[in-house]
Prior knowledge:
alpha+beta; outer membrane lipoprotein receptor (LolB), chain A; 12-stranded mixed beta sheet; disordered N terminus
Amino acid sequence: MKGLNTTVLVIILCTSQILAQSRGIYIEFEEVQDIYSLLKEQASAIPKEKASVLGLIKEQGPWVNHYTYEYINGKSAFRFLNSNVQHLSDYIAQLRNFEEEKIYLIAAKDTTLGYVDTVECHEWQLVPGETKNIAGYECKKAIFKNSVVWYAEDIPIPDGPGKPWCGLPGMILMCEYSPYHSMTAKRVETRNNIIIEFPKNTKPFPSVRKGVNWKTSDN
Length: 219
């Protein structure tokens, strides 16, 4: 009987490990860009004939975009649901292969096509002593160039929204690109039915597009 109990325990432990490996993470992100406040700060540089545009932008309110992030078994997918980001507007998703450190931008006009590039890790400045609760997770602060991020060590995925972030010991749940531009996790949950497939049709992706380095730019 003792041997049987041991066998059952081993089976339970093995099953738990398999389930843990197949369990994925699902995150909903909200991006807010206060274009009016940004332009108002730069009002002196705006031609007088275009100054009236500020009023229209103020009436429209901040730009709000929504995205989803999924991770499972060394693969992630960041999907642009309604992105206004100019240098990513031609794409609907960013996929990442953690084992090979490759990323794929999926074209909006041809979802079978992926522009492939490598992941570059950042040199972070960790800020001790500062924490923030985001979507139920305690997050720590780190800085890269002009971007401030908050990452959750309880989600041990070295990734984040919007770019192929790399180098932190946890998932980034909030990015503050400037006082007028941020992206924040609104919902985090585990899921078992996540499927991420990389495109078979690929092309090299130019790192610099329209003068903007999409992997390392500040916004």
